[in-house]
Amino acid sequence: MCGFLTYFGDSLEDNQILNLEKGIKLLKHRGPDNQKKEILFDRKCFLAHTRLNIQDNDINSNQPFYSRNGRYVLLFNGEIYNHRKLRGLYLSNFNFKTKSDTETLIELWNIYGEESISLLEGMFSFIILDLISYDFFCVRDRFGIKPLYYMKRGKNIFLSSEIKPIIKAANLEIEINNKILYDFLSNGLIEHTSETFFRNIVKVNAGSLLKGNIFNENLFKIKWFDLKKTYEHKDYFLKPLSFDKKIELLNNCLKEVLEESLISDFEIALNLSNGSDSALLQTILFEIGKKNKSYIQVYDEAIDPKSKYAPEWLYKYRESIKIKPSNVIENINKTHFFQEEPYTGLFVNGYSNIYDKANKDGFRVFIDANGLDEFFLGYKKYRNQNLFKSNNQSIDGSYKDNNFLTKEFSEDFALINQDRNITGPRELAMNDLLSFKIPRALRFNDKVSMQHSIELRVPFLDHRVLYSSFLFRENEIQNENQGKLPLRKILSKNTNRDFAFNNKNHQQSAQSLWLNQDLYDFIYVLLKDGYLVKNKIVEKGKIIELLSNLRSEIPNNSYGIWQLISTEIWIKVIIDDCRNWMN
């Protein structure tokens, strides 16, 4: 896992190079083991990389990395899980100088070019520059697990694994993207488009290739993996197989992608919840002989995160990290600094505590079970037809759109997708994969883990697991009471039926309770006369009313309040204090 910062365009002045060098320092947490830069083509190209050693702790694997024939240079963030297999299948006659997936990737590209992308299994964002044609290629993995941002100014383009390095490198005056701010504050939308909370800084979309040339300002956007089209052709995967045969194929697929993701020179830990997906992850690892240490965040000492039905061995290697209100106050500014944009709840702060502890314990690689709820209809909302035409951002449908925005701020914008024509649960789940839950979870998870120099892998968020889910008809995946029926079937074989088919002992983050009690004074001062009130984005009277209601009772869903809190802290940490981190 790494970070990079790149520039292509007009020849750089000395002060511009200095800004780029300062920009790469803002990525040191993503790559504390090595930092290296190259300046090419009469200062028209700047390539810088920070490396976190995971595979092949060899200086020859540092980046920027050149192909053996000298034609291509690579900046790469992520892991190619099947790179050893690719060496045997496509590069068996090549004499490699390293054991890294970096070298595998660049030499595959040297032979197969853009066609090599579809051969890759894993999580990745990378930039390849052709030193002969001056073309550059910017690639992001199928689901957008690894980030890639860019800003274009004329024919000059800045690209990076994070946003702050672009701001610093381009000496950019920060402007809030009010359209995205409106989407967030009005109905909780986040990571739903390629835009960011910063004007002119955008993302390369998941499954996409951005192609350009150093001497030409044109950019071409190519979709190399189209999740929407995959869903539209889902019936192609239906086979006349028995349910038990489908279960067998799914189980084999889960084992394959999980074993593939274990490639590492370091021990791997697990980030777990107390749900069935985490248990499935653990049981498959046990089955293949892996007994990984795991961590879980706990908010209330009175709540036991263990299930009474679970076998005791499931918790043998687990450490509970207790999260307290004081932890939130202590790290909330720092978490926002590394997140770079507002986020959706204090559970992210809880993850920060987990990764901080794990880093001190010597871990560099984590795995979690993200993706299975969307593939196999795990949430209640997928069984509630009233939510099919809604943008509801909660997993149970309890979130309500906010009405505290001022008319003058709102009048230039319109709510997103108010007339969605979603006809069924799988289409709703696909929206979560494309535009809602998964994109935002991936952003939070990448940045909160990398804040502590830890690589987080999500092996189940894989196109092969998605294809396996299409083997099953909808009524084989969920009934009126539960989803994920095929996964529960597999889990029951490894544990017991009562545990596998028991509804999740869902442990909330205690956000609503803490906002009502321990954190109330903190947020009252933050919101009462904050940026949003002073700049007439929200109505002060409604904020006072919101705070008064919060004091009198614990809200069922506190996301609306958190939106205000996170926005205020983001503005303070990233925008108001920009001189501190820009220097």
Question: What does this protein look like?
Answer:
With about 575 residues, the chain is an alpha+beta fold. The protein folds into three domains: about 1-225, 4-Layer Sandwich (Glutamine Phosphoribosylpyrophosphate, subunit 1, domain 1), CATH 3.60.20.10; about 230-405 and about 420-500, HUPs (Rossmann fold, 3-Layer(aba) Sandwich); about 510-580, no CATH class. The chain is built from 24 helices and 17 strands. It has a six-stranded antiparallel beta sheet with strand order 2-3-1-9-8-10. It has a six-stranded antiparallel beta sheet with strand order 4-5-6-7-11-12, with helices on one face. It has a five-stranded parallel beta sheet with strand order 15-14-13-16-17. The chain is globular, with a radius of gyration of 24 Å. The model has no long low-confidence stretch (mean pLDDT about 90).
